Amino acid sequence: MKIPLILVAAIILAALLGPLILPWDHASIDWDSVRVGLLSDGHILGTDDLGRDRLARLLVGTRITVSVALAAALVALVIGVIWGAIAGWVGGRTDEVMMRIVDGLYALPFMFVVILLMVVFGRSIFLVFLGIGAVEWLTMARVVRSEVMALKNRPFVLAAEASGSSGTRTLIRHILPNVAPVAVAYLMLTVPQVVMVESFLSFLGLGVQEPLTSLGILVNESAEAMDVNPAALLLPGGVLVTIIVCLTLAGERFRDRLTRTGRAAESAS
Amino acid sequence: MSVLQLSGFGVDIGEQRLVSDVSLEIGEGEIVALAGASGSGKSLTAITPFGLSAGNGTGSARLGGEELVHLPEAEMAKLRAQKIGFVFQQPLTALTPHRSVRQHLQEAAMQAGGGAPTTRTMLAMLDAVGLADPQAKLAQYPHRLSGGERQRVLIACAIAHGPKLLVADEPTSALDASLRRDMMGLLTGLCRKQNMAMLLVSHDLASVERDADRLLLLKNGEVVEQGSAAQISQKPKSGYGKALMAATPRLTEEMLTLPDTGETLLEVRGLSVRFKKPGWRAGYLDAVKDASLTLAKGETLAIVGGSGSGKSTLGRAIAGLGPVNAGEITWQGDLLPPRKKRTAQHRRLIQPVFQDPVASLNPRWRVADSIAEPAEQILGTRPPEARIAELLAEVDLPAEFAERRAAQLSGGQAQRVAIARALSANPEMLLIDAAPSALDPLVADGVSRLFRKIQQERGLSMVFITHDLALARRCAHRIAVMDAGEIVEMATREELFSTPKTEATKKLIRASS
Amino acid sequence: MGQLILRRLMTAIPTLLAIIILSFILMRIAPGGPFDGERPLAPETRAALETAYGLDKSLPEQVVQYIGNILTGDFGPSLVYRDFTVTELVAQSLPISLLLGGLALILASILGISAGLFAALRAGKWQDEVLMLCATLLTALPTFVTGPLLALIFGLWFGWLPVSGQGDGVSWLILPVIALSLPVAGAVAKLARAGLAGQLGQDHIRAARARGIAPLTILRRHALRPALVPVASYLGPAAAGLLTGAVVIETVFGLPGLGRYFVQGALNRDYPLVLAVVTLYASLIILFNLAADLIYGWLDPRMREG
Questions:
Q1: DSSP single-letter state for residue A47
Q2: ipTM of this complex > 0.85?
Q3: Which of B239, B360, C220, C242 can bridge C101 by disulfide, Cβ–Cβ 3.0-4.6 Å?
Q4: Residues B420, B306 share a domain
């Protein structure tokens, strides 16, 4: 679990600090060296067709992709936890209606919804993460709900009620702290999902707009020029894949460890 | 001639020796029981010789003269298929969900190399294990059968190939108390009739002592006592045997006097609870029907019944922790409102204790915070540390336990903390919901002694919900018997056992003796 | 069983209607229309166009009319590809998407299930670790990275396979199908492994083992069907996605499938086209979920009662 997280941290750190050190920024054009290769004219990774520094664009693109992903994952976390906690805690009709809505949204063509939202409300970076977050919360809501349902019939929750603890207090003090680890595990799994969706949208030209850039746009640009400059594809693609794989691995391990200890605790009873 | 012979048999898992030096011999038609608390190694001893545990056998285990220790798995599997039958604890999950009863029986009958059985043979097999309506059951999938029916099918499968030895690992502990007697009777009858040897494993001494010819008492992987079942149950020699026998309640034991009772406090009249059945095709399940009872100061009332009898639902309704559809609950004449309307004052009167040690405490809270919660919420002030220590002392735990979390407590300790939490509100009555076999017999006995001590010191009233009639007889002034949502009989313990009136009560008494 | 199908269809129809109506309204209230070109149209031309396409009526009227038309198989004219009706466009592109998606689905199932089952049988050993790491890698690799990468390696460097468009024979299908199936294969492998590993620890497997049944027979008879339940529940929606939504792969490999028309339609505000694809997709999802339900019933009789 350590190594993947360290790798991701290193990438994020580079994306944050790199642009401060580089003499070029992601939008400025070096007219003297358009479309040059690796290590030429002070451009470590060369430049693109417009003479923009590839390294600067890679770092800025990473920064955008990661921040969009984090923001969207947080949106998903907040909506998902609130929705799932209410549905699971209140139960009955409320739960049924709330979960039917989730089921319905699940059945919606997910990618189409995001694309429709982009088209309908225009292409702004804010909407990109709002839109993605609004779709990604579904899994979180399901997970949180089933955790809350399992916890709410535990004797310790009934004992809290018998202790005169109000419903809201029980939910906040007893239930949610016990849901937190699982929510964090799924948050870790949501981030790479969102990275994927964001890059996918940008790849199709529906995400972040020029002159800003993201990993998806860079992959798209370089895929078109891959016959001349394969390294250009490998780098943004590599960074993207590293982020997704590392976060998925770390998230899955964390989740599996939680369910294992959960099971061990139950079988001990 | 002996069917199974263990001599100096032990079980290792990795480097660790979990069972050592067990010697026993079972002849044809004989029944030998391994008994002990969980973790005593009794199951390991029973299944390791046949290659079914993670452990390795040491010493010697012979089946009809053939040495089993170090036998390769392929040969062991052949041996199991031909000469041994197994019945495990979990009848609900031990049948493959997508295979019908017919398919299970066919596979079992053919496992020793025989041909496919005819429908008539299979019907006879089901008949022999006392399954009602075998014709219809043959085509069923397991999920359509009840727990008892599944266990009968499993027994039919276990003996379908005519094994020499039957290994039964806790065959009845997942079943309802009223079914246990029948199922043990079926197993012992089959052994005697077909001249099979049986190795029986159980944590419940009371249930094996009458069925087994010989008994081995295990503790921490060692045999502490062995001999005829009658001798061990009546005159145990070892200290552990004595303690265990004393801790196991029996219907035949002398009734101890209980503390005096006072005025009537709690009165329940015509209480009903119904649940909506899951799914769209609506329908209601009457979990509790028209239940009425009273409870006096210092009195213990036991509510006894099988699983699904509605006893826990009734208990929760009384404590204001579950729904009520009709009827009223009063305390000294004042009405106790339904769940959502109960105030702190109402909550103080009745505190629940759930006998599910792990789930009873919030795993993320310190013991001190758990114990402080009722006082804080109901009495309005957080009790000082000294008060927490006092409460811990009352349940015989040292004050240092205040800093621990649930995971750092044993089952018995967690149970005691849960009791201390209930006492922290200074209640008038405890509602104790006992989960079946959640604790080892000795620990459970310690906890029920604690309840008696607390009752005496504080003059508390108690409602004690249990499936164990013998335990109810030991500690309750009066006993209410529940069956299918109704209180079918309520009487003092003396009366209930001398003149039981209803069939449900008689059945429970039969099942427990 | 029949009752289950009937009940599912009863809930499916309102769901489908809701999706159509919602998307219809969404598209209508979106700022900007199909005729907002670079050069503003004369008001009368615009009015004539809007009458011709029925855009001048009230929204509810438009919805009702639209649904009525769909029932007769008429999805209206495309607003962008003016010479074609939407039905024609769909009829042209759907076969390509179905072929691509269907083959990818089969490949992913075969690869994923066999790798997952093998890993479960070797649970905890190195083969399991390696296979599951690969599976995670596959699910994490976006198709728009693997697609170009495969094209680069096998198309450009080795020159074995075509990388763009529909050529003769079947060689043009190989790279897109592989690229499309990889993430699904990874997900299926994980689910199959978890399913079987979970089954192998179950009581009924222990009971079968105690009866001395041969390990392979236990696997085939007792463990396999319940182990595949999670795979079936994943493949339902995944199949619908594969058959219609291979947008990226179609873009990367220059194939005129349904996904490309959808993205183009959405960008150009070609309402009828987008709506047709959404309707088609939603019905496919419902259909595949129904198929998954039927498969559950076969895998586990407990689910037949719904």
A1: B
A2: no
A3: C242
A4: yes
